Amino acid sequence: LAGVLSPTSLRPGAAYEFAIDNDGDAVEDIVFRIKASAPGNGSGAQNVNLHKATGGGGGGSIAKGQTESTIPVNGGGELRIGLHDDPFFFDFVAFGDGLNFCPPSGNPNTASGTDFFAGLNVTAIVLEVPTADLLDGTPNIGVWGRIVLNGKQVERMGRPVINTALIPSGSKDAFNTTAPADDVATWTADVTASLIGLNGDAGYSAAVAAILLPDILTIDTSAPTGFLNGRDLDDDVGDTVLAVVSNSAITSDCVDANDVSFLSTFPYLAPAN
User: Fold this and answer.
1) Residue 39 DSSP code
2) How far apart are CA 183 and CA 181, in angstroms?
3) What does DSSP assign to residue 263?
4) Which among 194, 192, 79 is positioned nearest to 127, based on CA atoms?
5) Gap between the Cα atoms of 24 and 209, Å rounded
6) Cα–Cα distance between 254 and 257 in angstroms, integer?
7) Number of Cβ within a 10 Å radius of residue 90
8) What SS3 class is residue 244?
9) Pair 61, 73: CB distance under 8 Å
10) DSSP states along 141-164
């Protein structure tokens, strides 16, 4: 909700990071780190610096430029940071109303959902780099985003909805500070209990928790992408998550696509509303 509940700029002093695990141990082997200056007077543009670091300690700046512009990345690729249409589509109000999805639309033969995110914006960081730069002997990687402030991780996400739907309300900040490598030991019991509350099947819930943790978006880059193998912008993530957590008791929120079309070329996200 950029411009509504949050600013439309990055926080100066914070590090916005993409972490890449390419050997399957849930520990980052490559980190792309973005830092931004304070917004400039008048234009509001921020100077940004993209730094790449590897597990061996090497690295350095690979891109510099300003927000709301496309910045070339050394070694190939592009970076863009700025305001875009929120690409997520989901009936978030129905989710908070006891999973009351797809109420009658007035026509008894149809049902509809309401995309809570329609017309809203995000301050997006879009980074494209050569796939080969992310790999280490196999086509498999894991990706998560995180924000570090004053040397402390204060937010992170791999797969969507894990923290939102499956972590108890009083533990969300603690989850955000946990490293993915510690997820299984720290959060399996809570995630399993939340899943049991949604589907009533303890065995099934334990099996799903073992798939969802650690909270890393896994991708086999040699196979077609699509959630849960990575995540494409037009994937109906809401429906997939509902079916998984409910053991197929709920299969749709009746919101099937973003409210506006995505772009076919970089930066892929639709323009800001």
Assistant:
1) P
2) 6
3) P
4) 79
5) 18
6) 9
7) 23
8) helix
9) no
10) EEEEEEEEETTEEEEEESSTTIII
pTM over 0.85: yes
Phi then psi dihedrals of residue 148, to 5 deg: -115, 125
189-242 pLDDT per residue, tens:
999 999 999 999 999 999 999 999 999 999 999 999 999 999 999 999 999 999
Q: Give the three-state DSSP class for 169.
A: helix
Per the CB < 8 A criterion, the answer to whether 254 and 102 are in contact is yes
What is the separation, in whole angstroms, between the first and last Cα of the chain? Answer: 11
Alpha-carbon separation of residue 98 from 94, 195, 239 (angstroms): 7, 14, 16
How many other β-carbons are positioned within 10 Å of the β-carbon of residue 21?
25
pLDDT tens for each residue of 104-152: 765 655 678 999 999 999 999 999 999 999 999 999 999 999 999 999 9
On whether the CB atoms of residues 61 and 248 are closer than 8 A, the answer is no
**CA-CA distance, 221 to 235, in Å (whole number)?**
17
Find out whether 13 and 149 touch, Cβ atoms under 8 Å. yes
What local confidence, expressed as pLDDT, does residue 55 receive?
A: 78
Share above pLDDT 70 across residues of the chain, in percent, rounded to a whole number: 96
AA identity, residue 35: K
Read off the pLDDT of each residue in 157-177 and give the average, rounded to a whole number: 95
* H or E element that contains 49: strand 47-54
Determine contact, residues 91/114, Cβ cutoff 8 Å: yes
In 88-244, the DSSP E strands lie at 121-128, 140-149, 152-157, 217-220
